[in-house]
Amino acid sequence: MAIATNGRICGLSACSVELTHKKFYIEDDFDIDAYLANLWGITASSEEVTFKVRFSKEVARYIKEERYESRPDFVDQEDGSLLLIVTTRGTDEFLRWMKQFGKDAELLEPVEYRERMLDEIREMERRYGRKN
Q: Which segments of 1-132 does DSSP mark as H helices, in order?
């Protein structure tokens, strides 16, 4: 949805549209379906990344009920938890989505993103552990 106010169009998390005189051309071989494939949200990177995330049994049901543009695979675990496997080109948006589940989500792969998450958690621990 887009809303026009004071000459600005706001929507899809963007509210900084400005009129320019630049021309935009679409390449003849551009394929919108291929471009939109494997997105998680609206931001696309050129590189596809496959994530594996374990969700606790407390949230597994909600993960399976949600609708996704990228088509994740779900693997039910014996302990009631859920393994989600998805390949996406929207890595930052996927990680933000995953973080909303807090302790109920564990990023298993890829290792470099797991390490990035761990660095972020350590930084949060430093911030929240400070005494004022």
A: 32-36, 60-65, 91-99, 111-129
**What is the count of structural domains for the chain?**
1
Strand 73-76 to strand 82-88: parallel, antiparallel, or no bridges (unpaired)? antiparallel
Phi-psi group of 109: left, alpha or beta (phi > 0 → left; psi -120 to 50 → alpha; rest → beta): beta
Output the pTM of the full model. Answer: 0.68
Residue 94 lies in a domain: yes
What count of residues does the chain have?
132
pLDDT digit string (tens) for 45-88? 668 899 999 999 999 999 999 887 778 999 999 999 999 999 98
Note whether residue 6 is domain-resident: no
Answer yes or no: is 115 within a domain. Answer: yes
Assign residue 116 the CATH number of its domain.
Answer: 3.30.70.240
* Parent domain of 78: 38-129
C-beta of residue 51 within 8 angstroms of C-beta of residue 110? yes
Q: pLDDT digit string (tens) for 102-129? A: 999 999 999 999 999 999 999 999 999 8
